[in-house]
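Long-time lurker. I teach an intro course on protein structure, and each term I like to show students one example going from raw sequence to a predicted 3D structure in token notation. This year I'd like something fresh instead of my usual example. Would anyone be willing to generate the tokens for the chain below so I can use it in lecture? Attribution to the forum is fine with me.
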Amino acid sequence: MDDLRKRIAALPPEKRALFERQLREKGLQLDKSSICKRKNLNELPLSFAQERLWFLHQLEPDTTAYNIAFSWRFIGNLDIGLLQSCLNTIVQRHEILRTSFVAVDGQPSQVILSELQ
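-- Reply from a regular --
Happy to contribute to a lecture. Here you go:
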């Protein structure tokens, strides 16, 4: 079965679409595994990489070593409302942009806000 999955995954997009359409016509579908959405967003443990950065931040809180500075130049009229809506959509879609790190009994933990505030 694993070989079949590899062969299907290697199909060009147009052939894969045709294959999936033929399966649907026969009442079949490919097994699509998905990642389930986490229910508990409170006090999640940090990954090793996050914990490392948290530790380094505790040692030197004012460092900018892990910041990446960049700027954009917009030419023409800028629709501020549209830009804000686009950025809010991106933040809503990606949990990491709504994540804060807190210490609970001296141990780091991440808290993900369910929505923008």
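Some talking points for your students: Residues 22 and 28 are 8 Å apart (CA to CA). The chain has four helices and two strands.
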